[in-house]
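Lecture notes, structural biology module. Today: joint structure prediction for complexes of two components.
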Amino acid sequence: MATIKDIANKLGIAVSTVSKGLNGASDISDEMRQLVLDTAVEMGYASKKMKASGSRKVCIFIENMDYENIEQFGYEIIVGFKLAAARRHWDVNVVPTNLNMQTAEKFDSYMLKNGYSGAFLLGFTLHDDWVQQLNKTSVPTVLLDNYIERNNHIGYVGTDNYEGIDLAVSHLYSLGHKKIAFLNGSKNSMVSEQRQQSFITSMEKHGLEVNEDLIEYGYYVPDCAKDYVPGFVKHGATAIMCASDLIATGVITELHKLGLKVPEDVSVIGFDDLPIASQLTPSLTTIRQDRTDLGKSAFLLLDGLVHNVTISKLLLRAKFIQRESTGPCKN
Amino acid sequence: MATIKDIANKLGIAVSTVSKGLNGASDISDEMRQLVLDTAVEMGYASKKMKASGSRKVCIFIENMDYENIEQFGYEIIVGFKLAAARRHWDVNVVPTNLNMQTAEKFDSYMLKNGYSGAFLLGFTLHDDWVQQLNKTSVPTVLLDNYIERNNHIGYVGTDNYEGIDLAVSHLYSLGHKKIAFLNGSKNSMVSEQRQQSFITSMEKHGLEVNEDLIEYGYYVPDCAKDYVPGFVKHGATAIMCASDLIATGVITELHKLGLKVPEDVSVIGFDDLPIASQLTPSLTTIRQDRTDLGKSAFLLLDGLVHNVTISKLLLRAKFIQRESTGPCKN
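The predicted structure, tokenised, for the full assembly:
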């Protein structure tokens, strides 16, 4: 493993300058600091802070996901992670990120500069610069709902989407529904693709016809419902499975606008079990993702990676929560 | 949750008799003891021992798998599990099982009688009585290489078979091999089915023809090679991917019998990276399952289940180990 001296030799500068660069001292230029960091990363340098087993410091990076209050998806994930980390006396920083920040600095350099031993990335997509850099990183990193092939330093944590969607389809099937529509979240998301495939597999498993007019990709926001609900109704859907509770709130609003009652005319199921699910009228039948446990499991996984236990995937059970938005099919 | 008194009331017997039944006392009949245990399980009784958070006792049940010395597949898995358990001061018993034992007593009754808080099952198949009973158990249980749907108390630990097989196919592809045969392990095993599907998917991903004459299920023993290797050779295979190192040893022996050299005439890849892989002539290129980490991860998972973190699947990375049994394709 490279030492500070190796980096100094390679760049032909003083050891003290390298040390300043690594520690973010202000009396060297930004360019020199960046050059030192990038060279250190390239040479596989890891600081004492990163390797320290006593009190480690790790970082949760978050984007495209709300997390400030308990109503929001990210909140309990972060709580769960912090709870598990506290038990091992690890420090956790939460850092909101954006594309600019990712363009400005490479992931590995950012981690090295700040002495982080590992990271948990929430809400990132495969298009993010930092996610693309994860193919080659040696910094232990856990991704929520995204998977990186062939890098032993990266793990994926999430909920078992197949079982979740299958629980929902089974429930609707048991209520007599045959024409079940699926309003998915955004395309180009691994989770959406898994849910799409799971829906088709589960419909076939139950001997139900997979009708392309009843399957659509939308977005993970309520507003997308207005573009698809009228079409689903026109094609005879008696139940609508939604890829998130937020989408389901939009679907219920649209059904009401069309003069249809939930669940008397159309049953609706969500996914996530956010606090809003129990507050809606009618309250929402949904598939629960246990977010506190997702956070705890992300920590377990990161702890494993830091100790060279190369966990690739850790999936939690999805849980079926029956409420009032689903009922027997009358058609 | 049921108490000893509830059980006594239900059976119309004295509390002291229930207590004797639960503690395995010898001054009541076998039938009465069994009745007490089965009733306790049915009523959801959990003993103080099972719930104790101080010093828990868990059990590794093992069958159809050798584990007595380091050459064998189960050895390091058990070591890894025990290492992780010791760090949390949990006691671990290793209990070899067989079909008779499973017929004689139900899984839940066995666990209750012995005060185990959880179990790790190695080498079981979906046909085992105890595995079939796992659909309904509430005893935290981890299975190696088997998955139980819809029970939040059960977890599955294993190696990412898709990535493992894909690493092997990629390697052979990069050496110019196109006619790649696959000698799988036993049918009716979840792992064999995953590897079969992974092989087909990976071949297609690499633009290679999937030839049914070159794909066979065998058994996880060297001896099965003699039934399939001549056919593979006849159909022009230049490389043989094996579902285990033991199968690969049989394949190499058969190739030698046919007057073919490894890797000059036919390349061979194993799976597992048992100690024997590096001792063979030629030494065996293989896909490594890190067995110590499988054991450690099984404990992590069980610890999660005991604390109601409902982990469903935990998969480890498969690792490509290049040795001498693979070489460039000359055809």
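Point to remember: Chain A touches chain B at residues 149-150, 152, 160, 163, 167, 290, 293, 296-297, 300, 304, 309-317, 319 (CB under 8 Å).
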